[in-house]
């Protein structure tokens, strides 16, 4: 069995300011750096054997905190990036709601958004789940894989791996900064959810 831990990056200034980040490459804030350093020992205690990360700085730098403790190399994979939010990136929820009221309302309800250059959830689910399944398939059966990624990316990947419809992703609730989702892959029983939003 393989343990897969989806670890959301630490806080950024845009997180704190309520701005949509998407694939804009925002660094961790000072608080985000501290969050990563505080969480890393708890993940190190699980004896990870594989470290992967989104290539966006906020995820890569979060993973660096764990890398420093366990001494494993990190493989960066652009497929683990956050959902692309197109024209919404850098804007607050209020600004998006004012300019795209119908699309914003659909997004808040977990429904498809088809304008403003927002990435479709099917594409997001496919790219993230494919990257994670490849990591699992390439690791020993008893591997512990920590993947540093992003909130929406982790939720939609979780649904895709578990075989749940993408519409279920909002029911998982937001994955908090430096919290994690734990999944187990059994070659007989497939994917299983162990825990969500682990601090």
TrEMBL record:
In terms of SMART domains, this protein maps to: PGAM
Q: Could you tell me the superkingdom of the organism this chain comes from?
A: Bacteria
Kindly list the positions annotated as binding substrate.
Answer: 8-15, 58
Q: GO CC: one term?
A: cytoplasm
Residues the record marks as active site: 9 (tele-phosphohistidine intermediate), 82 (proton donor/acceptor)
Q: Per the UniProt record, which residue ranges are transmembrane?
A: none
Q: A single Gene Ontology molecular function, please?
A: phosphatase activity
Name by which UniProt lists this protein: Phosphoglycerate mutase
Originating organism: Dactylosporangium sucinum
